[in-house]
Amino acid sequence: MTGLIVVIVIFVVLLLVFVTIYNGLIRLRNEADNSWAQIDVQLKRRHDLIPNLVEVVKDYMSYEKETLEAVIKARSAAVDASGKGVATQAKAEGELSGVLGRLFALFENYPDLKANQNVSQLQEELTSTENKIGFARQHYNDCVMRFNTKCEVVPSNIVAGMCGFQKKEFFEIEEEEKEVPKVDLR
Question: For residue 143, which of 86, 93, 186 has the smallest C-alpha distance?
Answer without folding.
Answer: 86
